[in-house]
Amino acid sequence: MSTPSGEDVKPDTSKIRIGVQFNGQYMHSSVSTPLLFSYDWTEVFFLYKKTKPLAKLLIMFCERIKVDRKNIRFNYEGVNISREETTAEDLEMEDGDVIDGQLWQEGGSFER
Amino acid sequence: SLSGLADACIDSFEFLPWDTTVPGLSPAVHLTSEDLASFLSSDWLNDEMINGGVDWILQRAGPGSRSRILNCLFIQSLRNARSQSVSYSPQKFSPINKAIRAGTVNLVWFPLLVSGNHWTLLKIDLVQKTIAYSDSLRLTRLLEELALVQWWLKTLLRSSDDFDIVEPDFPSPRQLDSHSCGIIALSILASILLEFSPLWSPECAATEQIEWFLRLSSMFEDGDDFVSFFFIASAYYMN
User: Does the keyword section mention Protease (chain B) (predicted)?
Assistant: First the structure.
């Protein structure tokens, strides 16, 4: 790669494409817990630094799909990405890998 | 006795950090001290509490066990996978998928949230090719979830036949309150995989809650002993 003036520019290898996918389903609706939730499957790719905490990327994703971050569990290859400091490098992610987003779950009965 | 367990709880408050993550659990679990405290209340169990209990059981069942327990969020991974592809084709094959395909697992247990608010339990018998469903309220029937599980198994086992649906051949206590279904699922799993007794009953509901609090609290004392095992035998990862 080179600039208009002919100088060579090295590609930025510190960044990779990271996908985040989410397919919300429903939470039960009852008189005491009116928790309806529905969302079509979506996948968004970000160009992101491998050494930067993924927490910011996940917040960006949640803002993009307009869902509260607290309602989604994110994992990559079975590793829960809840720790603020976890990076793509920590998870040995490669270009094009996708993080799975899943709806938070809670259960006890049909009525509280 | 209940009073002895209550004393043990009070003693544990001396060493439990109030705002941290429970150590020694698999990377798939992010159980906090706040979640831990919820075991002592009538709050409903969330996915981290179920997965924390499952992790605790799996660690003690050991790598030689031919039973596995799926992460309760796996059903949503299946939904994601189903929405993208006609056949189950994850990015990378997880250890549980590899173990099922290799025939090194006989039983797969699956804590499953149904209707968005009730924990139930599936038992998948890979030898008999059957699925049994246990609902502590005896009120639900699985349709979409069962179809997803059948779809997943058929791809993994390269089979075109559905598993037969059978009645549970394990004790399945009946829930009388409005919050114990998660504890009941964990109690059934501990009674079968670790031969713990007695099984949950309405009379010992409070005792079981305290027991689970103390079991998971103990990870603060001995958590690191099991971490290395779990990185090797992490057989119930999602996707």
Answer: yes
